[in-house]
């Protein structure tokens, strides 16, 4: 049993291993390129942060993968998600450091790196998978690279990760099982439909009575409005929703999506606030990964122009496609389509408000 005081900084942090892990490929070829050191260290730093994100995601998944998720553990989940967002901000900022390598200096060692690529970052792939990206969600080139660019042992490792229930599925389960939008004797969604009908009627009246528009312009605006109306219809019709979900328009289940919408609409109710925070943080994490991808893509554009990547992809074009496709919690962004103004929201009956409130009841509480 080690005694207190026997820990030595260098050994504890395994610095011998870490600080000796920068071997310049250009030096091996007899022409050391100054900037390759920065290139290696930046990538290694990213990998360590990715590892920390995987560590946090696994802990979050462990909590949510309980058949009965304990409410008091949700606070812990919020804390870890918030930590992930802080790390992500550093990941985005860090691109500025690697961007100090000029395209010309990059050329001094770039070709020596073929066919290695950030695409082969197993930590990054684990993050994607743990969050909820499955093979069937990936663009064709991304799937193909899985088979052709990764070692067999890395493929096996990722397949194992894919077997696990991912964060998206667990959040969906949590939303579906939760009591968020289901109360005895109160059918919220019928009232919501009436409020939506009223909202569209009022929107149409506003368009029709707008004197600055021609009749043609009015018709075209009403037509656009009806498209949004159609989206509302598919939200309130489970079969239509599932049909759109099968086409990839939604990833949450019908009941999960409705619960998420209810939470957004009534987030001012004290007991829904924690759930609202959770959904907001999930959207933040998704949004920040997208921002990292966009930032990385712009850096790549500057570094490579239209050249292909060292991993053999079309480079910038490939990255643009994965940026758009590899979204996990896009539903939480698209939920805004279905929000209606607070003043048009059906008021919750007193018993429901009591259920969603805290315990203190002042004399005026209804
Ligand atoms: C000079 C700097 C960099 C250049 C020119 C560059 C270029 C590229 C290119 C062209 C790709 C597409 C795959 C390919 O054909 O190789 C790619 C993918 C990727 N790179 Fe970078 N990269 C750079 C720095 C970084 C850094 C610092 C990281 C951090 C780990 C990183 C992580 C990734 C990841 C995770 C992918 C896969 C993205 C996906 O599949 O959507 N890259 N990179």
Unreliably modeled segments: none
**Structural class by helix and strand composition:** mainly alpha
Overall radius of gyration: 25 Å
The helix content, as a percent range, equals 55-70%
Assess the beta-strand content as a share of residues: under 5%
Topology as H/E string?
A: HHHHHHHHHHHHHHHHHH
CATH architecture: Up-down Bundle
- Describe the sheet with the most strands: none
Shape: globular
For the record, the count of structural domains works out to 1
Q: How many beta-strand elements?
A: 0
Total helices: the number is 18
Describe the structure.
The protein is globular. The chain contains 18 helices and no strands. The longest helix is centred in the C-terminal third of the chain and has 35 residues. It has a single domain, classed as Methane Monooxygenase Hydroxylase, Chain G, domain 1 (Up-down Bundle). The protein has 366 residues and is mostly helical. It starts with 8 loop residues before the first helix and ends in a 10-residue tail after the last helix. α4 packs parallel to α10. The structure holds protoporphyrin IX containing FE. Protoporphyrin IX containing FE (HEM) binds next to α4, α15 and α16.
């Amino acid at each position: 049993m080690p005694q207190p005081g026997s820990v030595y900084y260098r050994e504890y942090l395994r610095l011998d291993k870490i600080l000796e892990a920068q071997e310049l490929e250009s030096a091996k070829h007899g022409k050391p390129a100054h900037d390759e050191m920065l290139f290696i260290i930046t990538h290694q730093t990213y990998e360590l942060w990715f590892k920390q994100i995987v560590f946090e995601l696994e802990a979050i998944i462990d909590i949510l993968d309980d058949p009965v998720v304990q409410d008091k553990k949700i606070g812990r989940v919020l804390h870890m998600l918030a930590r992930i967002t802080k790390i992500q901000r550093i990941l985005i900022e860090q691109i500025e450091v690697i961007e100090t390598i000029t395209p010309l200096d990059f050329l001094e060692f770039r070709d020596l790196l073929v066919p290695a690529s950030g695409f082969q970052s197993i930590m990054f792939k684990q993050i994607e998978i743990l969050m909820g990206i499955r093979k069937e969600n990936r663009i064709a080139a991304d799937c193909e690279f899985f088979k052709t660019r990764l070692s067999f042992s890395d493929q096996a490792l990722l397949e194992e990760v894919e077997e696990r229930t991912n964060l998206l599925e667990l959040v969906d389960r949590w939303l579906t099982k939760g009591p968020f939008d289901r109360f005895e004797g109160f059918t919220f969604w019928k009232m919501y439909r009436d409020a939506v009908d009223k909202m569209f009627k009022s929107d149409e009246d506003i368009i029709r009575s707008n004197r600055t528009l021609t009749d043609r312009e009015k018709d075209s605006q009403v037509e656009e409005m009806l498209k949004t109306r159609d989206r509302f219809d598919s939200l309130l019709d489970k079969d239509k929703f599932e049909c759109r979900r099968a086409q990839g328009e939604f990833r949450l289940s019908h009941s999960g999506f409705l619960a998420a919408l209810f939470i957004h609409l009534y987030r001012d109710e004290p007991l829904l606030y924690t759930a609202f925070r959770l959904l907001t943080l999930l959207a933040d994490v998704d949004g920040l990964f997208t921002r990292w991808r966009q930032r990385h893509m712009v850096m790549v554009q500057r570094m490579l122009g239209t050249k292909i990547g060292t991993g053999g992809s079309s480079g910038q074009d490939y990255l643009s496609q994965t940026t758009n496709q590899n979204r996990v919690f896009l539903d939480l962004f698209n939920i805004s389509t279905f929000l209606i103004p607070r003043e048009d929201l059906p008021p919750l009956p007193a018993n429901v408000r009591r259920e969603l409130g805290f315990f203190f009841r002042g004399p005026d509480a209804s």
